[in-house]
Design brief:
This protein is an alpha/beta fold. The protein has 16 helices and eight strands. The protein has two domains: 171 residues, Rossmann fold; 208 residues, Dehydroquinate synthase-like - alpha domain (Dehydroquinate synthase-like, alpha domain, Up-down Bundle), CATH 1.20.1090. Bound molecules: 5,6-dihydroxy-NADP and zinc ion (ZN). 5,6-dihydroxy-NADP binds next to helix 2, helix 5, strand 6, helix 7 and helix 10.
Length: 410
């Protein structure tokens, strides 16, 4: 494996990198806060596009509560539901047309990461003169400020409620691509933990796995001098694992949902990534699985992450041993390899405890899955954006190494 890994990126900086961080989201947390959506939206918009998913918000009564609050505040709305997990570009195009025709001044997403990402895409597309998908493929450049996005989160996972990112799938081309711009951080996000009580256990598990990986992508770095963000990352990782384990046993524990949701937001609003060289290799590999086989993002990550760690840890044993000891509770030892391998074994055990898949077969991939094609696509997307022929990370992976990670997880 190591022979297949390109050696670029082994630069050890003496101190953390410079950074420029602005987080513009008004973040409102707590029981019952979603009932204030109308009042909180008033300064932002007079008319909104209300965007939601496949029906959970109607079954739970949240839709009715939101509509009532909008009416009480005198906010007009039109609506577009039906966003599916791993959201597609086609309904986004319809949403853009609707938002333009109705003259809305903001998009209100009520749902999980898929609904929020679709809402961001609509908000981005309304003032964009070209085709929205061409922003995701980088064939076109963003030239206008998106409409403001507000969110009521119903599933703590993707962190989109406070991230500047959106991820869409184009079913025609079989590609799942992300787009990021600071103007896409929601203007307002409301997180009320009682809204998570209707989630099935597998969605909790996918969500916890996703948020943990958002920290892995930042934490496992070759950047030196990152003591503060190391410690913040470690505390947030421990919190996610502890609270998800509680929720596995007690799915109605609202306090645990609140802790998990706050950790999930912090995991991906880039506070934890300040000044660090970041990886996103596991996300690059996973997005190909979701694009081709429509697997849940968090489930795909549970299969990819252990195989990825085993492929790259030798490039920076220190950070992996630090994680194993400070997060996974492995007893310190001079035998670094034993410490790291025990950390990875404990991570696998935690995935199992949550009921997450461990192999490509458990994920539902066919025996003849084309891992070589997915490896090429992942490198083409993530490497090309950085001008390399590798997925970045503590140990950059070329196409052959990426395929080996996929195959190690079969
Ligand atoms: O569609 P409905 O009926 O609402 O059902 C949803 C959906 O089937 C259901 N659900 C949501 N809230 C519920 C509920 N069911 C019962 N009670 C509730 N309170 O959960 C299912 C999954 O929802 P989805 O939004 O797809 O999940 P998630 O939040 O995990 O989002 C996944 C998407 O986010 C992207 C992923 O790639 C994927 O497309 N990501 C976005 C990121 C970002 N924008 O920053 C970063 C992430 O790394 C990730 O890539
Ligand atoms: Zn993710």
């Amino acid at each position: 494996m190591v022979d297949n890994i390109n050696a670029i990126g082994k630069i050890h900086n003496a101190d953390m990198n410079n950074f420029n961080y602005q987080n513009t989201t008004r973040y409102v947390f707590g029981h019952g806060e979603f009932l204030n959506i109308g009042r909180l939206l008033s300064p932002i918009a007079g008319k909104v596009l209300l965007h939601y998913g496949g029906g959970s918000v109607k079954r739970s009564g949240l839709y009715d509560a939101v509509v009532t609050s909008l009416k009480e505040a005198g906010i007009e709305y039109c609506e577009l539901g039906g966003v599916k997990p791993n959201p597609s570009v086609e309904p986004v195009r319809r949403g853009i047309e609707l938002a333009r025709a109705e003259g809305v001044s903001a998009v209100l997403a009520v749902g999980g990461g898929s609904v929020i990402d679709s809402a961001k895409a609509i908000a981005l597309g309304v003032p964009h003169p070209g085709d929205i998908w061409k922003l995701y493929t980088r064939e076109e450049q963003q030239s206008a400020t998106p409409l403001p996005v507000a969110t009521i989160l119903t599933l703590p996972a993707a962190g989109s409620e406070n991230s500047p990112n959106t991820v869409l799938t184009n079913e025609q081309t079989g590609r799942k691509l992300g787009y990021g711009h600071e103007s896409l951080r929601p203007a307002l996000s409301i997180v009320s933990p009682e809204l998570f009580l209707t989630l099935p256990p597998e969605q909790m598990a996918y969500g916890a796995c996703d948020m943990l990986c958002h920290i892995f992508e930042r934490y496992f770095t070759n950047t030196q001098g990152t003591e503060l963000t190391d410690a913040l990352c470690e505390a947030t990782m421990r919190t996610i694992m502890q609270q998800a384990s509680i929720l596995r046993r007690e799915p109605q524990n609202e306090h645990a949902w609140g802790q998990l949701a706050l950790a999930g937001t912090i995991a991906h609003n880039n506070l934890l990534g300040l000044g660090r060289e970041q990886s996103w290799a596991c996300h690059g590999l996973e997005h190909e699985l979701s694009a081709v086989y429509d697997v849940p993002h968090g489930a795909g990550l549970a299969v990819i992450v252990p195989a990825y760690f085993e492929a790259v840890w030798t490039a920076n044993p220190g950070i992996f041993a630090q994680w194993a000891m400070n997060v996974m509770g492995v007893t310190p030892s001079r035998d670094t390899e034993r410490v790291v391998r025990e950390g990875i074994a404990r991570l696998r055990a935690w995935y199992r405890e949550l009921g997450l898949p461990q192999t490509m077969a458990e994920l539902g991939l066919p025996a003849d899955a084309d891992y070589a094609a997915m490896a090429r696509a992942a490198v083409a997307t993530y490497g090309a954006r950085l001008g390399t022929d590798c997925l970045p990370g503590v140990h950059p992976l070329n196409v052959v190494a990426c395929e080996a990670v996929y195959r190690a997880a079969i």
